[in-house]
Amino acid sequence: MKKFAAALACLCALLCGSCAFGDDKPLVVGFAQIGAESGWRTAETDSVLSAAKELGIDLKFSDAQQKQENQIKAIRSFIAQGVDGILLAPVVETGWEPVLNEAKKAGIPVILLDRGIVTDDDSLYVCKITSDFVFEGREAAKWVVKELNGKGNVVQLQGTPGASAALERQKGFEEELAQHPDVKILESQTGDFTMELGKQVMEAFLKKYGKDIQVVYAHNDDMGLGAVQAIREAGFKPGTDIKVITIDATKHAFQAMVDGDINAVVECNPLLGPLAFETLKKAIAGEALEKWIVQKDELFEMSQAAELIGLRKY
Ligand code: GZL
Question: From the alpha carbon of 219, which atom of ligand 1 is closest?
């Protein structure tokens, strides 16, 4: 009953432009963030924190250091604090039903940010706000096929095992390449979305395949930038001897394109803060929402980098 009265108060407050609960208290939101593994992740965190500050939202923030058990602990803590809503960036797709059922029983709406989950019960979350990772992988593959004129060898640096962003970028990439049998994936391995591991995996690929590698496809910029270091240290010229395509399109990757080290990037928008809170307020007010709010992305090439880098927001 308390929640209904509060939602009603919020609805009225929404109509007159401010959303507060009960005696005009600020909205209290818990954000279970994955970690700080990449430049993209940091940009997303900054976007959420600054949007919360701007909107006067009392944000409870948790950095899980890329561990699911820490995210689950954070969600339980948010429930115990009686937050009004929860934002969750799920590090992996599975294992969320028990804790999301606890949030549901507590009447606390959950919005998934930037990655999805696998569940038979989609009432466990209000909606997910993510990019279309299959599209991103497909766009990368189309670029690779064009770059190789339909024939050549690729190595794939995968993101975090079990993460929707990694699984779906691989799915889109490999489905597209399946139509071009002369473009072969020599090997795929996870670099866990980090620069350090991306470099280590690329060093191993270079020892094994050397100049038989024509292209590196990295599921994010940070692993791609690690691969660039490994390529250079192995005596090859990144962007020329071995081409590099990555996903995220952070400023670091744009700079690497200006420097000639990365050849193409597929954008993946991390600036989700304002939309996340706008969507959460609608959920609390009981508005009907799309189950998947898709972010639009596009591919950029080295030739565009110099003119666009100054306009990049992350
Ligand atoms: C994508 C996001 C991914 C980024 C990586 O939405 O989950 O995680 O592509 C980040 O840079 O680590």
Answer: 9
131 CA: nearest ligand 1 atom: 6
Query: Are residues 248 and 267 in contact, defined by beta-carbon separation less than 8 angstroms?
Result: yes
- Ligand 1 contacts (CB < 6 A) are 37-38, 40-41, 114-115, 130-131, 165, 193, 220, 247-248, 268
Task: Give the residue, 219 or 12, on which the prediction is more confident.
Answer: 219
Q: Burial of 285 by CB count in 10 Å (0-12 exposed, 13-18 middle, 19+ buried)?
A: middle
- CATH fourth-level superfamily of 24-130+270-296: Response regulator (3.40.50.2300)
Q: For 105-139, write each residue's pLDDT tens digit.
A: 999 999 999 999 999 999 999 999 999 999 999 99
The whole-chain average pLDDT of the chain stands at: 94
Which residue is listed with tokens 């930038």?
225
Q: 269 to each of 20, 47, 49, 229, 309, how far by Cα in Å? A: 29, 11, 16, 25, 15
- 19 with 50: CB under 8 angstroms? no
Residue among 66, 136, 268, 292 whose CB has most ligand 1 atoms within 8 A, to mutate:
268
What architecture does CATH give domain 133-269+301-311? Answer: 3-Layer(aba) Sandwich (3.40)
State mean pLDDT over 285-301: 96
Mutate to test the pocket of ligand 1, among 248, 293, 294 (most ligand atoms within 8 A of CB): 248
0.85 cut: is pTM over it? yes
- Residue spans per domain, the chain: 24-130+270-296, 133-269+301-311
Domains 24-130+270-296 and 133-269+301-311 are alike in CATH topology: yes
Atom of ligand 1 nearest to the CA of 39: 11
Are 251 and 314 in contact by the 8 Å Cβ rule? The answer is yes
Q: What is the pLDDT of residues 169-226, one digit of tens each?
A: 999 999 999 999 999 999 999 999 999 999 999 999 999 999 999 999 999 999 999 9
